[in-house]
Amino acid sequence: xxxxxxxxxxxxxxxxxxxxxxxxxxxxxxxxxxxxxxxxxxxxxxxxxxxxxxxxxxxxxxxxxxx
Length: 67
Fold this sequence. Notes:
Strand content: under 5%
Largest sheet: none
Order of helices and strands: HHH
Number of strands: 0
């Protein structure tokens, strides 16, 4: 498995666990509505950005074998 597959997969798992936490924080009033939406957007877009960067912009780094 190469880094361009593993790293976005890890980030996707983190995003899946973070979004409900951000929704809980928004419901309790700990974070404002706009801030929670921005945090969810950033968390959800990070795996895609990591994949695009490692696959197309930096293919030498993305081709590193992890295991």
